[in-house]
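Appendix B, Record 12. Input sequence as logged:
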Amino acid sequence: MHFRSFLLGSLIVCLTLCTDRLTAQGCVAIRSFTACNPNAFSNGNVLGRGWMLSTNYRYFESYKHFSGTEENEARQEQHTSVFNWTNQVNLGLTYNLNKQEGFTVVLPYTYNTRSSLYEHGGKARYQTRSAGIGDMRLTYNRWLWHPDSVSTGNLQVGVGLKLPTGDFNAKDFFYNEGTDTVPNTATNPWGQYQPVDQSIQLGDGGLGFTLELQGYVKLVGPVYGYMNAFYLFNPMATNGTITYRSRANEQIMSVSDQYMARAGLSFNVSKKAGFNVFCGGRIEGIPVEDLIGESNGFRRPGYVVLVEPGLDWMHGRHDVNFSLPFAVVRNRTQSVTDKENTALSTTGAVVHGDAAFADHVFNLSWSIRLGSGH
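Logged structural output:
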């Protein structure tokens, strides 16, 4: 098969699998997933043996609630929306064995703030927070074709482990909660100390493994096609963290798979200056059911489809990438427990939880080749 046809076919298959099977940011607990390299496409892995340092910053604010694809606008009108503010910093270190293969370690740090009414007895709006390292990932990356043998594009494959290094039972104080809680008094000023919501937990507690793709192909003149894809397999069913939810099948947090895929076109504005502009599509989310293992416990499955414009600058040992994806489709899908509770309903009511989503995501990445490489 011709290389270009193979790469374009891989891109289409990747997006098809993600949109067909998988189900985003906000109340849907997506955690950090810097891919083989966080940038749209990078020259970092084709420079031979040596080290490369990568950093990625990601920020979003979620507050618009959806059940399915329908927005629950009444939540904002009634001032009952849940707000999540998430700041993620990923630090990645890659060691290239040669131009074709290498290893990457990624360690995330996250600071989350969550504002809600219902988690504090519905009497007043308060905030809970979590901060710390997340789940570390170790990945082996390999270009399918040696970079010296191709000039029109390449495809990189990564396989790795996701380690449960992040706190999956992070706690904070909840006002007006608990049988012995009397907040705002001298004896008990804070409230009940309990696990924060799943969406702002720092880790998921599971030992997982990942599959990653990154590729680019030259199309016409200065126009390139690019793609990234990531899937996290989490075989563990639940992690033992209590949710304080009333339904029996939602009292423990689920350990869910997650995914991301993006593809688009990049235009080389100036080869000398190293400037590129790009725009494409992006999908990320949490599936209703895991591909491996059981899908017990509480989770908010869903996905978001975004349009992703951005800028990329490559110069010497540096590669800087900025994008601002904005949501065009948000879907909080019906979870396994939603379906179970619908079947148990004596009134025929359809149970379909909601989730808050962001309008846009701020992404900024920087990678630098260490040592004498250019």
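The chain has a mean pLDDT of 85.
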